[in-house]
Design brief:
Order of helices and strands: HHHHHHHHHEHEEHE
CATH architecture of the largest domain: Up-down Bundle
CATH superfamily of the largest domain: Cation efflux protein transmembrane domain
Structural class: alpha+beta
Shape: elongated
Helix content: 55-70%
Largest sheet: 4 strands, mixed
Number of domains: 2
Number of strands: 4
Radius of gyration: 25 Å
CATH topology of the largest domain: Alpha-lytic protease prodomain-like
Strand content: 5-15%
Distance between the termini: 28 Å
């Protein structure tokens, strides 16, 4: 154990920085630029929808900054004081991001209500608003596609062509917390930019000025939805959540790949951030010597720890009791 402590203590911040979530870093930079452009356009044209969209982009930029920092810190290796690692640190930073989104959502909804009570007719900047929102759609759309690809990569899912969208929605729960946050926020960002674009066009060409306020409120409500979704996911992550069944089945297959393992008496796999901690009690063939049984345990442990998603493995061994304990339909029943 002392030999492992040395490299962990000398781990540089730059090395951790390179392990940070790339999706959140790209989203932070992109949304900061978009927020500045939108803020200028909103001040020039007086568009409430543009203001709401700028607030959303600003919230996204701040959030992604927090989340990227959290993803960097969560990559720290376990230490004697924190033997299970720092995976849940990212959940704390994501909860901070939820607070930011909630505040921005409140301000956006309040602005929308004000615009309903006191409609503002845009007197200029139509093409500026349109250009800004089109750029917004392109940038946030690109970030959203990047997040979808990260979801597929982190969940080890397979997809071809247009199946990317469906696969991303299906596997988003298995992605790392930062990637999930980027996905949800940019999904709302693209929708909000479309609503803002519609509001700018309609209020500029017609007398329906109330649409500006309605669009602003809708964008704020979408932000509230993101806050609740991300907040729930990270609250569950902080409490401690079991790994998906397919992950448990994959771990079981690795354990059963050793010919001397006859059954799994108990198994518990906890997810922390995007990593898993495995605890299992294996049943071995009767009559094995302690030395041979210990060799089996070490061999299975090495196979499990070789998986890039598994950071901690605790295995126990007992002699086969003659009762089948593990089946695919009863994963973790005995945990």
């Amino acid at each position: 154990m002392e030999q492992l402590a040395g490299p962990r203590e000398t781990e540089s911040f730059y090395a951790l920085l390179k392990k940070g979530n790339k999706s959140s870093a790209i989203a932070m930079i992109g949304n900061a630029v978009i927020a500045a452009i939108k803020g200028f356009a909103a001040a020039f044209s007086g568009s409430g929808a543009m203001f709401a969209s700028a607030m959303h982009s600003l919230a996204d930029a701040v959030n992604q900054g927090f989340v990227f920092l959290g993803s960097v810190l969560s990559e720290k290796k376990p230490t004697p004081k924190f033997p299970t690692g720092f995976g849940r640190v990212i959940n704390i930073f994501c909860m901070i991001a939820v607070i930011v989104v909630t505040i921005m959502a409140y301000e956006t909804i309040k602005e929308g209500i004000h615009l309903l009570q006191h409609p503002v007719h845009s007197e200029g900047g139509f093409w500026l608003n349109v250009i800004v929102l089109v750029v917004n759609l392109l940038v946030d759309g690109a970030i959203l596609v990047k997040a979808m690809k990260e979801i597929i990569h982190e969940s080890r899912a397979e997809t071809i062509g247009t199946g990317l969208i469906m696969a991303a929605f299906k596997n988003v729960g298995r992605a790392a917390p930062p990637t999930r946050l980027v996905f949800y926020e940019d999904l709302v960002a693209v929708t909000g930019a479309l609503l803002a674009l519609i509001a700018v066009v309609v209020t500029s060409l017609t007398n329906f000025a109330l649409l500006d306020g309605l669009s602003t409120i809708m964008i704020g409500l979408l932000m509230v939805g993101v806050a609740f979704r991300v907040g729930y996911d990270n609250m569950v992550g902080l409490i401690g959540v079991a790994a998906p069944k397919d992950v448990e089945e994959k771990v079981a297959q690795i354990i059963f790949s050793d010919p001397y393992v006859t059954d799994i008496n108990k198994i518990r796999i906890m997810q922390e951030g995007r990593y898993y901690h495995v605890e299992a009690l294996m049943e071995l063939r009767p009559g094995m010597s302690l030395a041979d049984a210990d060799d089996v345990k070490l061999r299975v442990r090495d196979k499990l720890i070789a998986d890039p998603d598994i950071t901690d493995v605790v295995l126990g061994i007992i002699e086969d009791n003659g009762v089948r304990n593990w089946t695919k339909d009863l994963v973790n029943e005995n945990a």
